[in-house]
TrEMBL record:
Residues 21-108 form the HPr domain. This is Putative phosphotransferase system, phosphocarrier protein HPr. GO terms for biological process: phosphoenolpyruvate-dependent sugar phosphotransferase system. InterPro entries: HPr, HPr-like, HPr-like_sf, PTS_HPr_His_P_site, PTS_HPr_Ser_P_site. GO terms for cellular component: cytoplasm. SUPFAM superfamilies: HPr-like (SSF55594). Pfam families: PTS-HPr (PF00381). Keywords: Cytoplasm, Phosphotransferase system, Transferase. It is found in: Cytoplasm. Belongs to the HPr family. The keyword Cytoplasm applies. GO terms for molecular function: transferase activity.
Length: 109
């Protein structure tokens, strides 16, 4: 799964908000979607940050630190998600997690 950042500059530049919030849009590019292995990688990486981190679709918002929550999105290849973080290290969290999407969580396809 890889993310395409929908902003002209870095992922963190996407949507800086006054309360220490940051957001960007990402696309799932992995052939099998956001399945167990990339969901586990995403949750583990998210847990390294103090920020509250959510993944959002048009009708659902989940905790990016929870593998079960991530899997509940059933995000297939091509799905667009909003990665949103609030807190002191929100920008760093969005940068790191969007990088995970862009690099397909280490998967080749």
């Amino acid at each position: 799964m890889t993310a395409m950042i929908e902003s002209p500059s870095s992922p963190a530049a996407a949507a800086g908000i006054d309360n220490g919030a940051c957001a960007c849009n990402v696309h799932v590019l992995n052939e099998l979607g956001l399945h167990a292995r990339p969901a586990a990688v995403l949750a583990q990486e998210a847990q390294k940050f103090r920020a509250e981190i959510q993944l959002r679709t048009e009708d659902q918002e989940v905790d990016a630190k929870s593998i079960l929550d991530i899997l509940s999105l059933a995000a297939s290849r091509g799905s667009e998600l909003e990665l949103h973080a609030t807190g002191a290290d929100a920008r760093e969290a969005v940068d790191r997690l969007s990088h995970c999407f862009r690099t397909r969580f280490g998967e080749e396809k």
